[in-house]
Amino acid sequence: MTRTPQTRPRRTALYMPGSNLRALEKARELDVDVVIMDLEDAVAPDAKETARKNIIAAVAAGGYGHREIVIRINGYGSPWWKDDLVAVATSGADAMLAPKIEGADLLSKLGDLLAINGAPDDMRLWTMAETPTAIQKIDSIANADPRLEVIVMGTSDLAKSLRIPPDPDRIGLLPALTAGILAARARGLDILDGVFGDLNDDEGFLRSCEQGRKLGFDGKTLIHPGQIETANRVFGVAEKDVAEAAEIIAAWEAAAAQGSGIAVVNGRMIENLHAEDARRVLALNAAINEQKADHH
């Protein structure tokens, strides 16, 4: 099953600890596409119950505008996962993010449990890809459940498991990153790059975003609001891209009107696949501009 990719902007997805009320409040004002309200890694064990209450109350209160609201639950088998899932199902959030997924059966089970616990049909499922086993099984995981819409790379956990030393070029992670992207694209899913942990290294963060964009990611997961502007820019649509896309579509339509399957733009041969991609670029740009209007 391959879905038609939708054009909801997911340039930036900011993790917000559910135990931090101020952070949940602040997220309503940030120029971010996705808010991932976290019950897992960012929350200490003795704060899990409070964090869950905080998040459910924040989502119920609303005020997040265009921002996609995703709640990351605790891992299956932990003391908290079941209460998390039940609470998320009817929370009004856009999606539930499942961590520590290492096979299609578990993700499918979580999708079923969402439905059983009253989740509306339009609630989506997101999955973390953060272990060697998850990467080995990523293609079947990507096809596990009709609710699944986004894969999120957990690069910190992956690097640790793979015993990869810190490396700005992420050479050791490239096979895993590419495997995730291939699986996502084969199924018509979106995929987000992992976090960049050094908040003092702006140049390194920019390079990480640019590398992710070149690899084919739709956006980046973030751990600090200070990272939003750079990631929005890198994973957004530049003015020159908009102009080029419009030019490609015009040339393609003119050629098609004359019965030709090929056009030439600036010396480059244009086929239907280029026109399709140009339409996606324009649709994404339109969606981003709509969000900007909402944000201001």
Structural summary, described in words:
The protein is α/β, with parallel strands linked by helices and 296 residues long. The protein has two domains: 12-235, TIM Barrel; 239-295. Helix content is 47%, strand content 16%. The chain has twelve helices and ten strands. It has helices at residues 21-26, 48-61, 81-89, 104-116, 132-136, 138-142, 155-161, 174-187, 202-215, 228-235, 239-257, 272-295, and strands at 12-17, 34-38, 68-72, 95-98, 124-129, 148-153, 190-193, 219-222, 263-265, 268-270. It has an eight-stranded parallel barrel with strand order 1-2-3-4-5-6-7-8, surrounded by six helices. The protein has a two-stranded antiparallel ribbon with strand order 9-10. Strand 1 (12-17), helix 1 (21-26) and strand 2 (34-38) form a beta-alpha-beta unit. Helix 3 (81-89) crosses helix 4 and helix 11 packs across helix 12. It is globular, with a radius of gyration of 20 Å. The relative contact order is 0.12. Residues 1-5 have low confidence and may be disordered.
